[in-house]
Design brief:
The chain has about 475 residues and is of the alpha/beta class. The chain is built from 15 helices and 13 strands. About 40% of the residues are buried. Bound molecules: guanosine-5'-triphosphate (GTP) and magnesium ion (MG). Guanosine-5'-triphosphate binds next to helix 9.
């Protein structure tokens, strides 16, 4: 089902840079390029006469005038990203040259691509499946090496292979059951039935294993949010700067320095952690600070865990105790800061009123000398990454859409086992199993809808 029109877009980020790439894909890609490209130099050819996978030096023209000196790559179908004819024009970086070259390409008969349309064509033309198409976006957006590795494995088809194997297994069972439906006299023999049920259960076990990767897959894709809270001057902004490795937030000896919430992502032991520095918690103060404190509480709600910063050089106040109690339900790490100063804080569990609580890890640091920061990073990884995912499952970490489909597949597969066990008609068992097969197939795109594709590809940028 090759598309009829030819699309084009700038494939590199908008802004100043050394080079920019304009990508053209579709049946008219070479003809479009012929109209706006003048080859220069002995070896360069008109695109439609050029062999596949060759590079040509020349000029992009507009009304006979040269817009830019470029290199033009000719890649003929089907050995291309979209499996269509593709031309990539590398021009000078900078917004204007790239825009003008794109304009010339559009004037020559291409239409502007929609977000993700190149990848969508790669999917529709069978070059990659749906899980791989999603991985393209994950690769682009990955913020740590670990996240990139997981996304690259998915792009390489690791998840798809497992999903296809699972689906095949379910299809075989379905064929088996359906064969018996066609011969109503021959009911399934009890031991064959037990075998089928056992095979269904092994499929469900595998689905469970995949489902368990969802949380951590989500963390690698979206990051995990950690709010840094504590009373004014405890060193929250200093801690943010230490964790980021650069001075992002203003630090001062004046309590109430941070007014607004500041969000930054840091790579903590391979995990993208979004730290939110907040206004110090205290009663009263001016209008701006009160708004800051309101926002602190808000970001606390949306954080997966908190870093509660305590000042080692000050005794615990009544307010500290109240805040400690107030956030006791939250997943948290207690960070005792300023241990380079003379100690005036009693951080024993009893002093902090921690007796009845599921023990929050406590880490002692100095944001001045960076002492304890590495241990804190370990503690953050410990609390963020529950270790539910086995190492060998890292390459198949599922996303929320996969989770939803697998969940439906799992329920339908379990219903099939119940139907078989309870002696309910084989037709019903087969019906449930077909639902399971379809749900599993959704993950790699065996069954899709336009809406689903729109939803997935609209999250891409233009040019991808
Ligand atoms: N000696 C020492 N001073 C520190 C340490 N961490 C922070 N400070 C100092 O404590 C003061 C307050 O630090 P901030 O990081 O601004 O504290 P904050 O919690 O963000 O304060 P607010 O934004 O006002 O709520 C500054 O003068 C820092 O230099 C530490 O580990 N040791
Ligand atoms: Mg601050």
């Amino acid at each position: 089902m090759l598309a009829e029109d030819t699309i084009a877009a700038i494939a590199t980020p908008l802004g100043e840079g050394g080079l920019a790439v304009i990508r053209i894909s579709g049946p008219q890609a070479l003809a479009v390029a012929d109209r706006c490209f003048a080859p220069a130099g002995k070896l360069s050819k008109q695109p439609s006469l050029a062999p596949t996978h060759t590079l040509h030096f020349g000029h992009v023209l507009s009304n006979g005038q040269s817009l830019d000196e470029v290199l033009l790559a000719v890649m003929r179908a089907p050995r291309t990203f979209t499996r269509e004819d593709v031309v990539e024009i590398t021009c000078h970086g900078g917004l204007l040259p790239a825009k003008m070259v794109l304009e010339a390409v559009l004037h020559s008969g291409a239409r502007l691509a929609e977000p993700g349309e190149f990848t969508r064509r790669a999917f529709l033309n069978g070059r990659i499946d749906l899980a791989q198409a999603e991985a393209v976006a994950d690769v682009i957006h990955s913020r740590t090496e670990l996240a990139l590795r997981a996304a690259s494995e998915q792009l390489a088809g690791k998840l798809s292979q497992r999903i296809n194997a699972l689906r095949d297994q379910m299809l075989q069972i379905l064929a088996h059951i359906e064969a018996h439906i066609d011969f109503p006299d021959e009911d399934i023999a009890p031991d064959t039935r037990d075998q089928i049920i056992a095979r269904l259960h092994s499929g469900v076990d595998f689905m469970d294993e995949l489902l368990r990767t969802a949380n951590e897959g989500q963390i690698l894709r979206r990051g995990i949010r950690a709010a840094i809270i504590g009373r004014p001057n405890a060193g929250k902004s200093s801690l943010l700067n230490q964790l980021l490795g650069h001075d992002r937030a203003i630090v001062s000896a004046i309590p109430g320095t941070t007014r607004d919430t500041i969000e930054e992502t840091a790579n903590i032991r391979g995990l993208p952690v979004i730290f939110i520095d907040t206004a110090g918690l205290r009663e009263g103060s001016d209008e701006i600070e009160l708004e800051g404190i309101r926002r602190s509480r808000q970001s606390l709600q949306r954080a997966e865990f908190i870093l509660h910063v305590l000042d080692a050089s000050e005794p615990l106040t009544e307010a500290d105790r109240n805040y400690l109690a107030e956030f006791a339900e939250k997943k948290r790490i207690l960070v005792v800061n300023k241990i380079d100063l003379p100690r005036r804080l009693d951080s024993s569990a009893s002093a902090l009123h921690l007796r009845s609580l599921p023990s929050s890890p406590l880490v002692e640091v100095s944001c001045l000398t960076a002492q304890g920061i590495e241990a804190l990073k370990d503690a953050i990884k410990g609390i963020a990454w529950s270790g539910e995912t086995k190492a060998e499952m890292l390459e198949v970490m599922i996303n929320a859409r996969h989770h939803d489909a697998l969940q439906r597949g799992r329920i339908a597969a379990l219903r099939t086992t119940e139907a078989l066990r309870g002696g309910i008609t084989l037709e019903l068992a087969a019906m449930d199993l077909r639902i399971a097969v379809n749900a599993i197939g959704e993950i790699v795109g065996h069954t899709t809808t336009e809406d689903l594709l729109d939803m997935i590809f609209s999250q891409f940028c233009i040019g991808k």
